[in-house]
Amino acid sequence: MTAYGYELAGALRAGHTVLTAWSALPEAGFVGLLAGAGFDAVTLDMQHGGHHEQSVWDGVAAITARRVPAIVRVPVGRFEMASRALDFGADAVIAPMINSVEDARAFAAFMKYPPLGERSWGPTRAIGVRGIEGGNAYLARANAETLAFAMIETRAALDSLDSILAVDGIDAVFVGPADFSIAWTGGERLDPTLDDMMDAVADIAARATKAGKLAGIFAADPAIVPRYAQMGYGLIAAGFDAAIVNRGAEAVLSAARGKG
Question: What residues act catalytically?
Answer without folding.
Answer: 48
